[in-house]
Automatic annotation (TrEMBL):
Domain NAD-dependent epimerase/dehydratase: 2-245
PANTHER family per record: DTDP-D-GLUCOSE 4,6-DEHYDRATASE-RELATED (PTHR43000)
The protein's name in its UniProt record: NAD(P)-dependent oxidoreductase
Family: Belongs to the NAD(P)-dependent epimerase/dehydratase family.
Listed Pfam families: Epimerase
Source organism superkingdom: Bacteria
SUPFAM superfamilies: NAD(P)-binding Rossmann-fold domains
Length: 315
């Protein structure tokens, strides 16, 4: 059985669904409730209420289930810790990561897949494909990539000294059912939502104004979840860090064109601007070690997401 922390969340729920499709049973750890989330109600999943920062609640899962692998997606951010307490949030995140390592060793699990982010490449002076062996800058510019770089380093140390196999997944920009709306970093979810409900897009939640030429490695969440499941189940991995994405850059203009092919009434454009050269994740390692390739191109992703939104989901 695979323990998935954060398994009721956006990427986590799709990872659970992918693991289920590959014949694996999952137990989901949730802080707030042991209830099965509606988005997974059609699957047979086991639930456990607990917190990765609470070692005893983690150990209780191991007493009830035989855990053979862990996908660790849960994270505590400052605005979730109360009173914007950045120190408490960082402490809970690191405590949770170390507790996962502790129980992984105690249970003898074969592998821990832990979520990192494309954001760790922020500040890297490379255009085009981003490979896992690029040196990363150590400066801080956002809490998420900072914490992910720290846990990647810890994973390498623990793999070498504690005998726990870790695979860190640097996850690209991900969109699809259950995702952030708005996503502060790219407009694709807001554009799809507007087209599905035939309203004007609201892009005010973005961190900066978007342009037509803005491009990033954009991956549909069903592909992201499947990639994480493959990393967990691969017979052997030859690296400690894997890029997880589509392996190509997708521009906002391409997203708009794909959405318009599904909803021709969606007539919307973004201004052109002076944007940096496109960058994307080199997914060679992922393809070679797991056989992964995306099943959803931009058009298929837009069609699937809009159908999901029109079926009644707010996200």
């Amino acid at each position: 059985m695979i323990l998935v922390t954060g398994g009721a969340g956006f990427i986590g729920s799709h990872t659970v669904r992918a693991l289920h499709g590959m014949g694996e049973e999952c137990v989901l750890l949730q802080r707030r409730t042991p209830a099965v989330p509606a988005r997974l109600a059609d699957l047979r999943v086991d639930m456990a209420q607990g917190d990765v920062a609470d070692l005893e609640s983690l150990r209780a899962v191991g007493r009830r289930h035989t855990i053979t692998g862990i996908v660790h997606l849960a994270v505590t951010l400052p605005w979730e810790a109360g009173n914007d307490d950045a120190i408490a949030a960082a402490g809970r995140t690191l405590d949770g990561f170390l507790n996962i390592a502790r129980v992984a060793r105690e249970w003898g699990v074969r592998r821990v897949v832990t979520a990192s982010t494309i954001g760790v490449y922020g500040g890297v002076a490379v255009d085009g494909a981003l490979s896992e062996d690029l040196p990363l800058p150590t400066g801080h510019f956002h809490v998420i990539p900072t914490l992910k770089k720290v846990t990647e380093l810890l994973a390498g140390q623990l793999a070498a000294e504690a005998g726990v196999e870790f695979a860190a997944a640097r996850i690209s920009g991900t969109w699809g059912p259950g995702g952030h709306l708005p996503d502060p970093f790219f407009p694709a979810p807001s554009l799809a939502h507007a087209a599905a409900h035939r309203v004007a897009p609201d892009l005010t939640g973005l961190a900066r104004p978007p342009y037509a030429e803005d491009a990033l490695d954009l991956c549909y969440v069903k592909d992201t979840g499947r990639a994480l499941a493959l990393l967990q189940l691969a017979p052997a991995l030859h690296h400690a860090i894997y890029n997880v994405g589509s392996g190509r850059a997708t521009s906002n203009a391409e997203v708009i064109a794909a959405i318009a092919s599904v909803e021709p009434a969606f007539q919307f454009g973004l201004p052109s601007g002076d944007v940096p050269p496109a960058r994307w994740l080199d997914t060679t390692r992922l393809r070679e070690d797991t056989g992964f390739s995306p099943e959803y191109d931009t058009a298929a992703a837009a069609a699937d997401y809009i159908a999901h939104l029109r079926a009644g989901s707010p996200r």
